[in-house]
Amino acid sequence: MGRMSSNYKRLTAVLMSAILMIFAAIPAFGQSLIRDTEIEETLRAYTDPILRAANLQSSSVDLFLVNDPSLNAFVTRGQNIFVHTGLILEAETPNQLKGVLAHEAAHIASGHLARRDQSNRSAYGSMLIAAGLGLAAILAGEGQAGAAILAGSTQFGTLDVLAHSRINEASADQAAANYLEITGQSGLGLVQFFEKFRYQEVLSNARRYPYFRGHPLSSDRIDKLREVTSESQFANVEDTDEEAFALIMAKAKLIGFIDAPQTVFSKYPETDSSKPGRYARAVAYYRAADLKNAVKTIDSLIEEEPENPYFHELKGQILYESGKGADAIEPMTEAVRLKPEAALLEIALAQALIEGGTSPQIDQSIDLLKSALRKENTNGFAWYLLSQSYDRKGEPALARYAIAEQSFAMGNYQRARSFAQRAQEGLREHKAQSRRASDIIVISGAQLASNKNRRR
Ligand SMILES: [Zn+2]
Q: What angle do CA 188, 190, 195 make, to 5 degrees?
């Protein structure tokens, strides 16, 4: 198991108390949202063309990855698509995954989830922020480290089911087929996917995968979908090699992080020298506290693909989580150089630099975190790290301001207001932050008042 730094443990405690406050009233199912640039990018590459075909603005549709082995994908109000890791692992081809994503996009585009609930949006926004870096801290058996307890997609799934109807399902299938047609892709993946899980129909509802509770599969439904998709001129279009390989690598990474190391070693034995085999094993070695083999294995991948940012990222993560923060700086720097647009990579490098702790390193961490926050301005973890950097720099007011932002992003208005108030006095020379602190005080106060009224 990777060891967490004490900073991380402290952070976890901070996050968890905040998260538990947010969701105190909602039963938790032990699920967590996970963040991973590589997997997010893979999913986005599959999803964005479909969203455009659905006349949705891809930038306003958020994708969330839920660490849950059950097969599920669902949408919630506010244009959010949730994908379970179980769905990714069960999808045999990108085309199958795209089919499911297209179907979910159709529910959004058709307004099948018409009941808007603003609070949902902010709640999920908070979880995204609260989720930690990469997969390791979250999945490496460190309890709920870095992860937010998701308020149970099961519960939200149930809400979705209420909105689902056979008519909506049929129309979402047809729309999905249409989007895939517009993008020049085959719709047969969705048919294959449904065929594969047709056996689920004979199970009682409770024993079905959550996905098929909301999406009952009738022969009629599958037949209709097959009819329309097989007539398409793109029926036989296959995924590109890159797309197929990206899915294989995403699966290997997920398996490496999710399965017990022994299971990983039997799924990807030493004799398997393929890239996905080594990728999964590198993660499993590190989780089995075999740092030497973990580094050796990831180094072999870096040697073959020195331009792959995720190999450098994983190496940095392995080193950082194994208590070698200073050694993590070099690979993390390389990952950022290769993918400067990825906020999570900048945050990971900043984290390692903070552990380094020299004055130039702290300055660099501040620059990186500011850059990351320009891309993800409600990333609570980045705000938290920024507060640490300011603390080290002897800037207590800016540190408190950053904690106010972190708390605000996570919906902890009490704490946000209190830290913003405490920050304000020292922010006279920091006009922008001072204005923002005032806003946080006002908005948090209004939120707290309206929460009070709602409870009454
Ligand atoms: Zn559906």
A: 95
CATH architecture of 272-339: Alpha Horseshoe (1.25)
Report how far ligand 1's centroid is from the alpha carbon of 71 (Å). 13
CATH number of 6-231: 3.30.2010.10
CB 373 within 8 A of CB 386: yes
Dist. CA 405 → ligand 1 center (Å): 37
Ligand 1 center to 104 CA (angstroms): 6
Expressed in angstroms and rounded, the spacing between residue 42 Cα and the centre of ligand 1 is: 22
**Would you give per-residue pLDDT tens digits along the chain (456 residues)?**
333 344 444 444 444 333 333 332 222 334 577 889 999 999 999 999 999 999 999 888 988 888 888 888 888 777 888 899 999 999 999 999 999 999 999 988 988 765 444 334 434 443 433 333 333 333 322 223 233 333 333 333 334 444 457 788 888 999 999 999 999 999 999 999 988 888 887 788 778 887 887 677 888 889 999 999 999 999 999 999 999 999 999 999 999 988 999 999 999 999 999 999 999 999 999 999 999 999 999 999 999 999 999 999 999 999 999 999 999 999 999 999 999 999 999 999 999 999 999 999 999 999 999 999 999 888 888 999 999 999 999 999 999 999 999 888 878 899 999 999 999 999 999 999 999 999 999 999 998 988 787 666
Cα–ligand 1 centroid distance for 420 (angstroms) = 43
Helix (H, G, I), strand (E, B) or coil at 69: coil
In the three-class reduction of DSSP (H, G, I as helix; E, B as strand; rest coil), residue 414 is classed as: helix
Residue 149 pairs with which residues in a beta bridge?
32
Does residue 320 contact residue 330 with C-beta atoms inside 8 Å? no
Protein residues with C-beta less than 5 angstroms from the ion ligand 1: 172, 215
38 CA from centroid of ligand 1 (Å) = 26
Distance 54 CA to ligand 1 centre (A): 15
Domain ranges of the chain: 6-231, 272-339
What are the structure tokens assigned to 214, written together?
Answer: 């909301």
Q: State pTM to two decimals.
A: 0.83
Ligand 1 centre to CA of 165 (Å) is 8
Ligand 1 centre distance from Cα of residue 105 (Å)? 9
Summary count for the chain: helices (H), strands (E): 23, 4
